[in-house]
Amino acid sequence: MTEIVATYSIVACDLEAGQWGVATPSKFLAVGSVVPWAEAVVGAVATQSYANPRYGPDGLALLRDGLSAEQAVARLTEADDGRDQRQLGIVDGRGGAATYTGSGCHAWAGGRIGHCFAAQGNILVSGETVDALAETFEATAGKPLAERLLDCLAAAQAAGGDKRGQQSAALLVVEKDAGYAGLTDTLVDLRVDDHAHPIEELRRLYGIHQALFGRTPREEWVEVDDGLATELRERLGRLGFDEEWPAAFVRWSGSENLEERVDGVERIDPVVLRALRGAE
To answer: Is the peptide bond before 252 cis (omega within 30 degrees of 0)?
Structure first.
C-alpha cells in the first residue's frame, strides 16, 4: 500500500528535555495520519513521497532494537522494492539523524541532516525550503521543541514550501510520562486536516493546547491567601458554581478542561487565575 504524500517535514529531538518530534505540512488531506511517528526515548520517523506507512512502526522497532538512524534507513529502504519513490527522515534516541530521498521522487526533492534533526521534502519550489527547516531548527536552540518545529514550518513555507500549495499540517512531540495525567508519552499531537492556511491554524491550536496542558513552573504559581480565596469564591458564585470552596473551584476547572493545571488550592497556576478572572 502506498500513498502520494508530497510534502516537507522535520524530524528532531531535544535530548536535554527528553523529547522527540515531527512536524509536517502538505498539499494532501490529513498529512498527520501518514507522515509522523515518534516514540519517547526511542526516536522519530517521517515517511513521505509515495509513502510507505510501514516505515513508521517498522522504523521505530529497528531503533528500539538498537539500530542507529542511518542503519534503520538503510534497512528499511533496502527491503523495499518501491524505494526509488520513497522519502524518509529518522532521528534516533541518541540524536543521530538520517534522511533518504529516492531517485524517483518528484523535483525538487532532497534533505539535510544535523545534530538532532533530519529535514526533507519533495515537490518543493526549491531546496530553500529544506534549508529553511534546517537553519531555523539550528537557530532556535533553547526554545521548547514543539515551538521550534512550528517555527521551522513557518520559515519553510515562507521560503517556498510545497509547489502545489497548502492543505494540512501536523505536529507530534513525545516525552516519557509527560502526556495527559502523566499516563501517556504523547506530549503534543495536533492535526489540521483541511485548511487554507494549515500552518497558521496549527500554531493557533498549539496555543490552545498550551493554555490547557502547558506547564507553569511551580515557583510562578500564586499563593491563595484569604483575600484571593474570597475573590475566587465570589467569581465562581457569579458563574453559577456555588458549592463550598474548594468544590466549586474543582468543578469549574474541570468544566473548562483546566484540571491538568490544578494541584490543590493552596496555590493557583496564573494561567488558571487569568482564565477565571476573564470568564465573566
So the answer is: no
- Nearest by Cα to 112 from 95, 134, 140: 134
Closest CA to 100 of 138, 67, 137, 52: 52
3-class DSSP state for residue 34?
Answer: coil
The closest of 214, 197, 203 to 171, measured between CA atoms, is 203
Burial class (CB within 10 angstroms; exposed 0-12, middle 13-18, buried 19+) of 277: exposed
C-alpha span between 46 and 101 (Å, rounded): 12
Measured from the Cβ of residue 127, the count of other Cβ atoms closer than 10 Å reads 17
Element (H, E) at 74: helix 69-78
The H or E element containing residue 72 is: helix 69-78
Report the alpha-carbon distance of residue 11 to residue 8 in Å, rounded: 10
SS3 category, 140: coil
Peptide bond into 246 cis (omega under 30): yes
75-107 pLDDT tens trace:
999 999 999 999 999 999 999 999 999 999 999
What's the whole-model pTM score? 0.92
CATH of domain 3-195: 3.60.20.10
Burial 202-223 (b: 16+ CB within 10 A, else e): bbebbeebebbbeeeeeeebee
With 70 as the cut, is the pLDDT of residue 193 above it?
yes
| Ranges of each domain in the chain | 3-195, 219-277
Please tell me the distance from the alpha carbon of residue 189 to that of residue 151, in angstroms, as a whole number: 16
Interatomic CA distance for residues 133 and 150, integer angstroms: 10
